[in-house]
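Risk register update: the risk of archive-format incompatibility is retired. Evidence:
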Amino acid sequence: PQSAPGNPCKKKSPLRSVADFSCAPGGASDLALLAIDYNANAAIVSLMQTFRMVMVITFYPTAIAIVNHFL
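Archived output:
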């Protein structure tokens, strides 16, 4: 993929694409397919998406309980 006009970079690095797709909200499988299209490492993107989902499922209920305790 080419960068936007005016951007001095000719092309995004694969590592930058991995970071973009790892942090993006969405399904792990969809973002892994997009990562393949952008020449990023789909395995790392899937791993980071899974890690993000586990962290949200694990810590979000705890955070809500703590906030409700102080309200």
